[in-house]
Design goal:
The complex is a heterodimer.
Chain A lengths: L1 E2 L36 H12 L3 E5 L6 H14 L4 E6 L2 H13 L5 E3 L15 E3 L12 E6 H5 L10 E4 L7 H7 L5 E6 L26 H9 L3 E3 L4 E2 L4 H11 L6 E2 L4 E4 L5 E2 L2 E6 L8 H14 L3 E4 L2 E4 L5 E5 L2 H10 L7 E4 H4 L4 E7 L10 H4 L1 H7 L3 E10 L2 H7 L4 H14 L2
Parallel strand pairs in A: 1-9, 2-8, 2-9, 3-6, 3-7, 4-5, 4-6, 7-8, 10-11, 14-20, 17-18, 17-19, 19-20
Antiparallel strand pairs in A: 12-13, 12-15, 15-16
Helix pairs in contact in A: 1-2, 2-3, 5-6, 7-14, 8-9
Chain B lengths: L2 H15 L3 E2 L12 E9 L2 E7 L6 E4 H10 L11 E4 L4 H10 L8 H13 L8 E3 H8 E2 L10 H8 L6 H11 L8 H20 L10 H22 L3 H7 L6 E7 L7 E5 L11 E6 L8 E12 L2 E10 L9 E6 L4 H16 L4 H4 L12 H8 L3
The chains are: A alpha/beta, B alpha+beta.
Chain lengths: 432, 388
């Protein structure tokens, strides 16, 4: 593994040199290329990809600007280097968001979209939605095609061969899928968050249980295990979403190998009396009827309603918190459905499971602790990736609804890595 | 009601009647032409196998003799069709595999060992016929009036099912009980996949393929894709079973409610359900019919367009309703996730294989890559390469 060192702010931009040999000397007219990225990390990734590194892995904490990096990188490689760039997103929503960002950068990206689903609004700009025969690169110059991994894998590699394949949210992709994507491009860039939920795999994987390069593993992890010496690693080291308290809580628990700091601008909530609300709070509930106990979901809904009386203070000023500023995150679909029903009069509150809300962000969040209701911690309820997603959706404030029995449940459980991490997290939350 | 309460109700009913309660209408296991019942145990470094087949007296042997015993029961890749391993002990297959690895290549036991390797591979494909774990199959088919942990013991099942023979021959009797009745939908597809894989294993063995070696990148990727397809198909097969669906209402996998066709160009239908915990989401393809989860009817297909809560009820709006069973206003309808298309699954696997066979990429071949450098403009070089 080759780690690209931390970079200083870039030197003054020097005019682009002569086009590289082999590229079209007089390219056709095209939209203006984006400027060199103004932050050294993005510039480092661009340099690494442009110069031809076969594999680049970009581990990132939550809220570090992954989507921005993907869009800037793709637009620069296509617009300045005349390269054909493929972007593989893991969900349709993620693909649409990347296409919007590219559109905002004036990049004529093509978003592959099934006619079966309502087309997303990409905004005004040169990006377009394509289907059927229009799924192709332009005949000259560079270009960007955005599609889900599943869609790429149903595509003929000869027709959509590209120079660089960027895999967004790559820790959600399997190594098997990464290999299939490799048929499209000789260069791979994996951008993602190593602390979050692993790829969803429905099939049995015990055959590869002891293999560090198993096909079911998160793509970048297996890629580093298989080809570490050939992989360049560029680490994003700042979160622009999480505040200092949240960063101090989750960085050691979920990212022991990825130190990062908070660069979120000052932002906090105040209650109706004008008192500052801590960034992290816990609300303890007595639960007796399992994870589906209405006492748990009611407490979440109550906590969300209580937050609507708060005000948000940022560097731009102070304003009331609105339902659209709020998210409620649960582990189970049934819990999320129950909370959604209790908040049916507030349709703008984002309610969902950790899987559904992965990648999303709100000003404030209410989280139902994943072990709430459980008396015997299982693999699902102690999964660290799921917990990490739940605890990292907010910018200014997080309320965690906990079960009064959970500390005792964790004390008596076998001290696995997950259980130990949960003990530490819960202790920190309950004393915050 | 939660699914935990549903299960408890069934368990209490079984305890009161003293009879297992059926969880499936259909058989979760198919009738197989060549079952071989096996139990293996380990004593130090020695693996001892007890085995039998229909009409054959049970026998036991250790080490290479155990492989010979299995060979006499037809467990060999030279047989025209693969034998089915029937066992009630999760440790048996790993022990057989351990034993198989000790068989010298090109020895008499080699084809037996390769057959065991085929078992080990196909054990990961649920619903097939290569390996039947009778404990798993029993738990899928019935619920007992015992504590849940007791269902992990074969003796519990023998007692509740009235099987007195605790030898490997009794395992064959249990397999007969499990396979009694009409099998679940699509088990024939999963069985056919096993049979195809057996032919492939035979060809590879005759071509000198060494199953002891770790999977290549492409073989592992294709193996994972195939396993996921099999698991997805079995999940869909279970939802075709009326008894299974009655339980699945309480886990949110099945939605039942009242239909209200909107009679618009999009052929939308609103389905109002009292349960809020549906797992169906906008974008999901669904299959539905007029009737309750325990019934079947002429199906219709649609896509979930919206899921909202109205007056404490879940309202799923499905659009693009097609099929002969489209509901009338006020009809009770049931919705389940649309099953995967076996044709699309097959196409997906073919595409996957084609991508890995492209041989253009270092990722598909597994070779460590070498960089092909491009000249980088000076401004990019400066911006991206200046160390701190």
């Amino acid at each position: 593994m080759r780690t690209i060192p931390a970079l200083t702010p870039k030197a003054p931009v020097v005019a682009t040199a002569t086009p590289p040999p082999g590229l079209t000397p007089t390219p056709p007219p095209r939209p203006p290329a984006p400027p060199i990225p103004d932050d050294p990390i993005t510039a480092g990734v661009l340099h690494s990809a442009w110069s031809g590194d076969p594999a680049i892995v970009v581990p990132s904490p939550p809220g570090a600007g992954k989507t921005r990096l993907v869009a800037l990188l793709a637009a620069s490689l296509a617009g300045r280097a005349d390269l054909r760039v493929g972007i593989a997103a893991q969900t349709r929503d993620q693909a649409a968001e990347i296409a919007r960002r590219l559109n905002a950068l004036d990049c004529a990206a093509r978003l592959v979209w099934s006619a079966k689903h309502p087309a997303p609004d990409l905004g005004r700009g040169p990006a377009m939605i394509v289907t059927g025969r229009n799924v192709r690169y332009s005949t000259s110059g560079g270009g960007v095609i955005v599609a889900t991994t599943a869609r790429w894998i149903f595509t003929e590699p000869g027709a959509l061969a590209c120079d660089v394949m960027i895999v967004d949210e790559a820790w959600q992709a399997t190594y098997a899928d990464l290999g299939a994507l490799g048929a499209f491009a000789p260069q791979i860039v994996c951008v993602g968050d190593p602390g979050q939920i692993d790829p969803v795999v429905t099939g049995e994987t015990r055959r590869w249980a002891d293999s560090p390069t198993g096909p079911h593993l998160p793509a970048p992890a297996a890629l580093l295990a298989a080809h570490g010496d050939a992989v360049s690693v560029v680490t994003l080291r700042h979160t622009w979403r999480l505040g200092p308290d949240t960063t101090a809580l989750i960085q050691p628990a979920f990212y022991p190998d990825l130190p990062f700091t908070s660069r979120r601008p000052p932002e906090h909530l105040t209650d109706a009396d004008g008192h500052r609300i801590p960034e992290l709070t816990a609300r303890t509930v007595t639960s007796t009827a399992g994870p589906g106990d209405p006492a748990l979901t009611s407490a979440c809904a109550d906590a969300a309603r209580a937050l609507l009386a708060a005000a948000l203070t940022t560097t731009d000023g102070t304003r009331p918190l609105t339902p659209a500023d709020l998210a409620v995150v649960a582990s189970h679909v049934s819990q999320a459905a129950a909370v959604r029903a209790l908040l049916a009069d507030l349709p703008d509150v984002l309610v969902g499971t950790a899987n559904q809300l992965q990648g999303m962000e709100r000003t404030a969040a209410v989280v139902l602790h994943p072990l709430a209701g459980y008396r015997d911690p299982n693999a699902f309820s102690t999964d660290l990736g799921r917990t990490c997603v739940m605890l990292s959706r907010h910018r200014a404030h997080l309320t965690v609804v906990t079960d009064a029995t959970t500390p005792a449940v964790l004390r008596t459980a076998e001290p696995t890595r997950a259980v130990t991490a949960h003990r530490t997290l819960l202790d920190a939350l309950l004393t915050s | 009601m939660t699914v935990e309460w549903f299960d408890l109700g069934q368990r209490l009913y079984a305890a009161r009647t003293g009879q297992p309660v059926a969880r499936l209408t259909h058989a979760p296991v198919v009738v197989v032409p060549h079952p071989v019942a096996v139990r293996a145990r380990r004593d130090g470094d020695t693996v001892t196998v007890a085995a039998t087949a229909p009409g054959i007296t049970p026998a036991s042997a250790s080490g290479m003799a155990a492989l010979d015993l299995l060979g006499t029961l037809g467990v060999t890749l030279t047989a025209d069709s693969g034998a089915t391993l029937v066992t009630d002990d999760p440790a048996t297959l790993p022990l057989l595999h351990r034993l198989a690895r000790t068989a010298p290549p090109d020895s008499d036991q080699d084809t037996v060992a390769a057959h065991i390797a085929w078992w080990r591979d196909r054990a990961d494909f649920p619903g097939g016929r290569a390996v039947v774990d009778t404990l798993d199959a029993c738990r899928a088919r019935w619920m007992l009036g015992t504590a849940p942990d007791a269902e992990r013991a074969p003796v519990t099942w023998r007692r509740w099912l009235g099987l007195t023979d605790d030898s490997v021959t009794g395992l064959l009797d249990l397999h007969d009980l499990l396979s009694d009745g009409e099998p679940l939908q699509w088990l024939d597809t999963l069985v056919a996949d096993d049979e195809y894989a057996y032919g492939t294993a035979q060809s590879e063995h005759s071509d000198g393929f060494d199953w002891r070696r770790p999977d290549t990148t492409s073989r592992a990727a294709f193996g994972l894709r195939s396993r996921c397809d099999a698991a997805d198909l079995l999940t869909a097969a279970l939802l075709t079973d009326p008894l299974y669906r009655r339980r699945a209402v309480h886990s949110g996998h099945v939605v039942t409610g009242t239909a209200h066709p909107l009679r618009d160009k999009l052929r939308r239908v609103e389905v109002t359900s009292a349960r809020l915990d549906a797992r169906l989401r906008p974008g999901n393809d669904v299959t539905g019919w007029v009737g309750t989860p325990g019934t079947s009817g002429a199906p219709f297909s649609a896509t979930v367009a919206a899921a909202t809560v109205r007056a404490g009820h879940l309202v799923l709006t499905v659009s693009g309703t097609t099929g002969v069973g489209a509901p009338d206003d006020g009809a009770t309808v049931t919705l389940i996730p649309a099953p995967p298309s076996t044709g699309m699954q097959g196409r997906g696997r073919r595409n996957y294989r084609a991508l890995y066979a492209a041989r253009r990429s270092w990722l598909t071949t597994g070779r460590t890559p070498t960089a092909t450098r491009r000249p980088v403009p000076l401004d990019v070089l400066v911006a991206g390469a200046e160390p701190s």
